[in-house]
## 1
Amino acid sequence: MESGVGTAAVPRGLPYYVAFSQLLGLTVVAMTGAWLGLYRGGIAWKSALQFNVHPLCMVIGLIFLQGDALLVYRVFRNEAKRTTKVLHGLLHVFAFIIALVGLVAVFNYHKKKGYADLYSLHSWCGILVFTLYFVQWLVGFSFFLFPGASFSLRSRYRPQHIFFGATIFLLSVGTALLGLKEALLFKLGTKYSTFTPEGVLANILGLLLACFGVVVLYILTRADWKRPSQAEEQALSMDFKTLTEGDSPSSQ
Amino acid sequence: MESGVGTAAVPRGLPYYVAFSQLLGLTVVAMTGAWLGLYRGGIAWKSALQFNVHPLCMVIGLIFLQGDALLVYRVFRNEAKRTTKVLHGLLHVFAFIIALVGLVAVFNYHKKKGYADLYSLHSWCGILVFTLYFVQWLVGFSFFLFPGASFSLRSRYRPQHIFFGATIFLLSVGTALLGLKEALLFKLGTKYSTFTPEGVLANILGLLLACFGVVVLYILTRADWKRPSQAEEQALSMDFKTLTEGDSPSSQ
């Protein structure tokens, strides 16, 4: 039920799902803070509490902000394409910087404590996701924001960008769950099986993290909620490979 | 580049990706077996080794077979729709039964050992995924295989079925990673950080599990790899809601 070029009505249901996603995202951030505050002594850079900077930054950056960056094209449906692109790119920059702080925090903490780095599945997934995220941003920037790429190149890269964007987001959620599990098992050990309040809170946090991932993915993939076609996109969607080769569009 | 009704050429690239997915899937199953054999004493029903039935069954059922069931419509492109549907449904039945054996194994093992059930994030996610999988199968069966549903109902439910199918599969992969991590931390504890062979093997297994999920998702979501439209699907894709209301199609 798309309505062609120009200002289109917002699809029925979309605002509720977006509102729900934001509620979930903010709940997840707040709950991560509550978990760290209630059961892990809170947050500080210059002490053993430095570790706690890691989960908070990762959840704000690579879960909440990354998720919201993916939703930009669904939420800002009638703004100029270029404005939406810049917002999408900027949100990812913020997410990246916050995640970088979170990464520095954990490496720094390990160094102070003399712990080994990068031995766990969580850390392997984390480094992989972070690298992919950086590469995806660079490639996305060069194709879509840097004015050099042709319509044809953009049209061929676009579905790949979307697929890998969604995949990196889902891998981020998965990595967060692994990290949460690790933090629980290291501290609680066999006490985990006695349904301690921290364990139950963290389990609920884990489920909400997964829910946030699913809701963002749902909004992103629903065909009739895609951004209405505008001039540039229509050209892209026709998938003619050579016709516009070398032609560099200045979007809107 | 879809080619309308009837026998269509297999899209370029698809067979390689499918072959790669199968190689990954079989490697994951073999590696799970190797991990359990080399480091966990192998598999048996009537001993403490009963636990090991759980990861093996889950990986065969809810990862490999579930993933392959999702690919059926991409691989069997020109067979009758009904045949493909039955194969899709049957693979899910096999996956479900094998996963059920895996579930019984772990509950039985916990009971013998006097361990608590359902306290961990892995178990919460697992029960959720297993329940969703069962509901999805039931609903899918009543809409698509049971002859009662109209074109209109099927066309409205179809995108939801696909989205939730992919989501349940991804949640299964995530749950498997959580379980793997749990098994490692319970047994290895701080030895995990010394890069023991078991830890490294299991980390690689975790990455390959995630890779299998990504490759299946890629094959599933690539627009130009979708099954070519046949008569029934064309009717569905037109999305006319009332025209065929009450009309029950006999597929093919």
Note: Residues 70 and 88 of chain B are 7 Å apart (CA to CA).
## 2
Amino acid sequence: MTTTDPSSTTPPPDRRPGGRTARTRAKVLDAVIAQLGEHGFDGLTTDTVAARAGVHRTTVYRRWGDVGGLLADVLDAAGDDDWIPPDTGSLEGDLCGLNEEIQTALTAQPPVMMALIASSFRSEPAADAQQRLWEDRYTRCGIIIDRAVKRGELPPGTNARQLLVTATAPVYHQLVLLRTPVDPELPSRAARTAALAASAGAFTEG
Amino acid sequence: MTTTDPSSTTPPPDRRPGGRTARTRAKVLDAVIAQLGEHGFDGLTTDTVAARAGVHRTTVYRRWGDVGGLLADVLDAAGDDDWIPPDTGSLEGDLCGLNEEIQTALTAQPPVMMALIASSFRSEPAADAQQRLWEDRYTRCGIIIDRAVKRGELPPGTNARQLLVTATAPVYHQLVLLRTPVDPELPSRAARTAALAASAGAFTEG
């Protein structure tokens, strides 16, 4: 936001990366995640977050507005990382690794990801941020399909997003909606099924 | 609950099928569905439902307890029907018809099914009833796989539930979680993909 003169001896400006604002944000977002994991959406208020983070409630109110703003920032911050998809040397291996990561996140304790998904049914800003995060992840995973095409495992013109949604949807469906007990075989089975269909040309146009 | 003497001239007992209790239940559940479709979970209280149904609030309170009880009964009533899955003559056609039904329900206005799914993140009884309903539907759809095995479209021993979850999961994932715009090709594409993988043996053990 502001630029600094490196020769200056004044304290770091408020919005310098890694400065006080960034530290406050980190404390507040950590507090949101902890509160959400322990008490769910219903236990989340700007006051409880402020108290947990040890910051003034007016700071939270002015910067994030309300719970929806806090949740959206948690999700946007989650997407602001250097995550890259698994690179195992095969399409099925990459998809299986991806599904394992999803299953691990969806079954983690405390259930932060499940609580964030549940929150997306309560708050439009959270829903929008959740969708941005998912779309960003699917976009980054496009490299899995690029590599598979280069290796000759997939026909050129394979629709990456359709293949990735097909590979991952059963994991989300079973754990988020059907809420069946964890099936350790599910990530690999869903990966194998999608890879099989994709190599048969299920995701190429025409 | 009670049995009746057909020669009796007394008024129908309260719990006779189609009697006063059944009519009250129908009015109350219709009111829950209408209220939920228009105002979502947050607009749902036993009082608003009672007023909308034109019944005493104590009737609603005594019979259903709370909003969770009302939602669970709506979902249980939805499963108490004679629904049968599509029978088109082919595995892919049956799965496509099933996905078309799901997509239609998930995009209906007012958005009753979406509101019921959202409610399952707020109420344990609603979540339990929603899962019972889905499991019942998947069980009924087993006949799709039985017919396909008999026609020689699928290997014997194909796991019906795994195939059905794979076929339907992308429709739920796109519409309920990713909330992408409706894709008219999605039901048939997901059906084709699952059928392709299934005929290649993706859902047989070993």
Note: The CA atoms of residues 5 and 53 of chain A lie 31 Å apart.
